[in-house]
Amino acid sequence: MSEERDPPLDLVERRMRPGEFSEAGFLGAHERLRDVQDADARTLASLHIAATALASRLERLLVRALEVKRNAATIDGFRVQLRRYKGFQPCPFAPQPFEMPCPGPGDRRLASVDWTIRHLANGARMTGPGLIAHLIGAHGFFEGFESPYRVDPRELAMLLGMTGAPGAS
Q1: Crossing angle for the helix pair 132-139 and 51-68, to the nearest 10 degrees
Q2: Degrees to nearest 5, angle at CA 61 with 56 and 64
Q3: Sign for the pseudo-dihedral over CA of 24, 29, 33, 39
Q4: Apex CA 21: angle with CA 146 and CA 112, to 5°?
Q5: Global pTM exceeds 0.85
Q6: pLDDT of 16-53, one tens digit each?
Q7: What phi and psi, each to the nearest 5 degrees, are found at residue 129?
């Protein structure tokens, strides 16, 4: 069995540009992946939250909603709406993105959904792609600051009640 190696950083960044793996892109045209990851890591450190913990909490909520087999579900004080697609979004970090899924955490079924989550107690609301649970947990990546699919780590932590924000648990 051959051991998969991480693709070079410049290849991953090319895959993330608008029009490559995504029409809108995972990164803006001139953003640098490491700069975005470093900024998000600093945000998480200031919140005392690990990317893996945040990704795990989001993934559990999304998987439970997916298993309801409806477009919307109320789960643990959240209203979760899913938009399902027939195809899937490949991970741009994967050594062979179209042949096999990226190794690491994340339920692969989520790569074919977009979500909207609303916190029922405080009304906070966010949207994002299902693949983000994997991107956060495996790669510490919340998408670029210029990407329309970016999920801000501070806002996500507040939404999911992982900070001292109103409605936090």
Answers
A1: 150
A2: 120
A3: negative
A4: 95
A5: yes
A6: 999 999 999 999 999 999 999 999 999 999 999 999 99
A7: -85, 150
Query: What letter represents residue 151's amino acid?
Result: V
Give residue-wise pLDDT tens across range 90-141.
Answer: 999 999 988 888 887 888 889 999 999 999 999 999 999 999 999 999 999 9
Instruction: With CA atoms as reference, report the closest residue to 128 among 104, 165, 156.
Output: 156
State whether the Cα torsion 54-7-96-151 is positive or negative. positive
Rg (C-alpha) for the chain, rounded Å, is 16
For residue 17 the two structure tokens come to: 């540009």
Q: How far is 45 from 110, CA to CA, in rounded Å? A: 26
